[in-house]
Specification:
The protein has 420 residues and is of the alpha+beta class. It contains 15 helices and 16 strands. The structure holds histidyl-adenosine monophosphate.
């Protein structure tokens, strides 16, 4: 049969053999997030295109090159699949007047994001994030930045990721950012010719992005200009110094990365990224930062905010095999030795399930050998065998697949024994 349809490039099927890992990661994430008092929010997977243009920045790569827009019959409104979760959460925060509920909104989401990128290892067009956003008035405290960073580190550790590096930096206030961009243009100006094509374009559109370009020529230019923190106001410097002190007191190890700027426009002050070298060129497991002006920019109240998002596919790539969650094996496989006994075996199967014991059978009476092979494939811990002999005696044969030991047990004791 010829193949007619195939998976869209940059997407993947999460097959039954992998789904357990996903469920386990999501369950562990939910547990740790609820310990930190975060509540789940689920926003639509598509939003008005203008929401992303306004928040992520017209010049960001995500908006400029990667938005997957939907063809809509409604001419007035353009929609796009969400490339990230922060802007949709900010939109929902405003629309649901969450600021009026008082206090801080600590929100998390787990879901699919979409970016029309060139697919490669760790870079997909549909990928999944676990993200958190802390939003509220007067919450611009380095304690919250530190808490969010510490949560990100704890989350990755809980999931079993090892050997990752946390890099932090500050961009300062919007005014500091403006000074920084002017200073960068001045310093980079004489070297524009030495930059890669993308960065020559970024020089006019989004000069910050030149700092974290991976091209070796661009890196050499950036190393020569030594971007530092000269653009920061005293207040911003103090905020950053406090953050570092708190992280140290929490024993969260970090490296300072003055060239870390992040690709989305909404960040001010703290930015951070967690990387793992085994991932190759797409080495960011997680990233985030502070965005105090985004909600107001989108027409909401002036509230402060900080958050991060980790990529689940990249977490899975980074997990050592021994830390990858395994599916619970099936408990029982039921074998009927002949057609006459099948209805009885089928009814035992239903009783096992009604008692919460995971179980299955082959539904077709074939040889004992082939049914045992089928049982083996499911990895079931026990096999329950029922033939005419056993039926007459009111027993079943219970075989422990790990030890190979087989014994007769009274049919009406089977469930109690398995539950014991
Ligand atoms: P981001 O750096 O664009 O930030 O994405 C966060 C994480 O999502 C990355 O570190 C990576 O693990 C994963 N990721 C991004 N793009 C892809 C892709 N094409 N394929 C696979 N994984 C990918 C944000 O999205 C911000 N909204 C984070 C944030 C939340 N900042 C504040 N709050």
């Amino acid at each position: 049969m010829s193949k007619q349809f195939s998976l869209p490039r940059g997407t993947s099927d999460i097959l039954p053999s992998e789904a357990t890992q996903w469920q386990e990661i999501e369950a562990k994430a939910r547990r740790i997030l609820s310990t930190y008092n975060f509540a789940e929010i689920r926003t639509p997977i598509f939003e008005q295109t203008s929401l992303f243009k306004r928040s992520l920045g017209q010049t960001s790569d995500v908006v400029n090159k990667q938005l997957l827009e939907l063809v809509s019959h409604d001419q007035e409104e353009g929609f796009a699949l969400r490339p990230e979760g922060t802007a949709p959460v900010a939109r929902s925060y405003i629309e649901n007047s969450m600021d009026r509920q008082g206090g801080i909104s600590k929100l998390f989401y787990i879901g699919a994001m979409f970016r029309g990128e060139r697919p490669q290892k760790g870079r997909l067009r549909q990928f999944h994030q676990i993200g958190v956003e802390v939003i509220g008035a007067n919450t611009a405290t380095p304690y919250l930045d530190a808490e969010v960073i510490a949560l990100n580190v704890a989350l990755l550790r809980t999931l079993g990721v090892q050997d990752f590096r946390l890099k932090i930096n500050t961009l300062g206030s919007p005014r500091d950012k403006e000074h920084f961009s002017q200073a960068l243009r001045k310093a980079l100006g004489p070297n524009v010719g030495a930059l890669c094509e993308d960065c020559r374009d970024r020089f006019g559109r989004n000069v910050f992005r030149i700092l974290d370009c991976k091209n070796s020529d661009c890196r050499a230019v950036v190393a020569r200009i030594h971007p530092g923190h000269g653009h920061l106001s005293d207040e911003s410097q103090k905020y950053y110094a406090q953050l570092k002190d708190i992280l140290q007191s929490l024993k969260v190890e970090f490296e300072e990365a003055p060239t870390l700027v992040r690709g989305l426009d909404y960040y001010t002050h703290t930015v951070f990224e967690i990387t793992q070298s085994s991932l190759g060129s797409q080495d960011a497991l997680s990233a985030g930062g502070r965005y105090n002006d985004l909600v107001a920019q989108l027409g909401g109240p002036q509230v402060d905010a900080v958050g991060f998002a980790c990529g689940i596919e990249r977490i899975l790539l980074a997990l050592p095999d021994e830390n990858k969650p395994q599916a619970d094996p099936l408990m029982v496989y039921v074998i009927a030795l002949d057609e006459k006994i099948f209805p009885k075996a089928f009814s035992i199967l239903q009783k096992l399930r009604a008692s919460g014991i995971s179980s299955d059978m082959s539904y077709k009476v074939s040889s004992m050998k082939s049914q045992m092979r089928a049982a083996d494939k499911t990895g079931s811990r026990y096999v329950v065998i029922l033939g005419e002999e056993e039926d007459k005696k009111g027993v079943v044969a219970l075989k422990d697949m790990a030890t190979g030991e087989q014994r007769e047990v009274k049919e009406d004791k089977l469930i109690t024994i398995l539950q014991g």
